[in-house]
Write a structure and sequence with these properties.
By secondary structure, the chain is of the alpha/beta class. It contains eleven helices and 15 strands. The protein folds into two domains: about 160 residues, Quinone Oxidoreductase, Chain A, domain 1, CATH 3.90.180; about 130 residues, NAD(P)-binding Rossmann-like Domain (Rossmann fold), CATH 3.40.50.720. The strands form three sheets. Strands 3, 4, 5, 6, 7, 14 and 15 form a seven-stranded mixed sheet that branches. A six-stranded parallel sheet has the order 10-9-8-11-12-13, with helices on both faces. A two-stranded antiparallel ribbon has the order 1-2. It binds zinc ion (2 copies).
Length: about 325
């Protein structure tokens, strides 16, 4: 192992910079890992597109599959293959002590060094071992699938319930798989046909283009009350506004995309719907995700590409434009 590594920095909106930098050293409680692959997340795309968080010290990427190199805490043997539970908290505030570092009051100043690099450091307690039977591609879905599984457990559907998923990127397709496994009848919407085909492969009963069809009326051909559950996964302003029209009275609505846009809640109020959001997985939901990908091997088909560090900017530009596949993995060894 050399003293330096290649890492990809977010210099400004839509521009990444490949640099040779010192390999980060683990601080108290942390382990050094070598990145095998790191998924490009929808949230990475939002940050890439807007330049939010851009600066000289920002390395994106949190959907990390890695080998442990050095764990001074003694928890992990070198060579252990792991995925990473992403949030890094102070470890001491109210939320960290509750085991919810995502809401940390004093988040770690180095939290922005992510997995688009050859090496990274993470809290040793946030590493989750990956079974040999699970491929790197499948393990890279632990984060988005952990979000979807958490959303399904919050929505707590009755068996046979009609569910609608809007937006069939990685989170939407993971949601389709999780809802189907929970026994729901799933209606899935996206503008892109390739993405609708993935949804059918994952067990969606019906797919549609929500800009061409009235989702609520189509759903009502299946159940007079329309969807009991609706997940907004497109992250678009229209998607977030429309989800309240798409779902029926009393429906539970999960907001899993990241839209930064005002919405009118009139429909939600009149239909007495309940809405919740999920900003990330939990350690438990990531463990459940690693089991789920073992049972649903077809889910790995949503991994549509693998790029080296030098090609990430082009890959992200394509994904932002709605092209270039579904889930793309960064492979720093390429
Ligand atoms: Zn993610
Ligand atoms: Zn904290």
């Amino acid at each position: 192992m050399g003293a330096t590594m290649r890492a990809l920095f977010l210099a400004e909106a839509r521009r990444l910079e490949l640099r040779e930098v010192p390999i980060p050293q683990p601080r108290k409680g942390e382990a050094l890992v070598r990145v095998r692959v790191c998924g490009i997340c929808g949230s990475d795309l939002t940050v890439f597109k807007t330049g939010a968080l851009a600066g000289p010290g920002t390395v994106l990427g949190h959907e990390v599959v890695a080998d442990v190199v050095d764990d001074p805490t003694g928890t992990w043997q070198p060579g252990t293959r792991v995925v990473v539970y992403p949030p890094r908290g102070c470890g001491e505030c109210y939320w960290c002590r509750r085991g919810e570092p995502r809401h940390c009051e004093r988040p770690d100043d180095r939290r922005r060094w992510g997995g688009f690099a050859e090496y990274a450091v993470f809290p040793a307690a946030h590493l989750i071992e990956v079974a040999d039977s699970v491929s790197d591609e499948a393990a890279a879905l632990a984060d988005p699938l952990g979000v979807a599984l958490r959303a399904v457990s919050i929505a707590d559907p009755e068996p046979g319930a009609l569910a609608y998923v809007n937006g069939l990127g990685p989170i939407g397709l993971c949601s389709v798989s999780a809802l189907v496994t929970a026994g729901c009848v799933v209606l899935a919407g996206d503008l892109i046909e390739e993405r609708r085909r993935h949804a059918v492969r994952l067990g969606a009963s019906l797919t549609l283009d929500p800009t061409r069809e009235d989702v609520y009326e189509v759903a009502r051909t299946r159940h007079p009350a329309g969807p009991r559950i609706a997940f907004e996964c497109s992250g678009t302003a229209e998607g977030l506004q429309d989800i309240f029209d798409d779902a029926g009275p009393g429906a539970v609505i999960g907001i899993l995309g990241i839209p930064s846009t005002p919405v009118l809640l009139l429909r939600m109020t009149v239909r007495e719907q309940r809405a919740f959001s999920v900003a990330g997985p939990t350690v438990d939901s990531m463990r459940a995700a690693l089991r789920h990908v073992g049972e649903r091997p077809e889910l790995v088909e949503i991994v549509t590409g693998r790029v080296g560090l030098a090609d990430v900017e082009a890959a992200m530009t394509g994904l932002v434009a709605g092209e270039g596949g579904v889930k793309v993995l960064v492979d720093p060894a390429r």
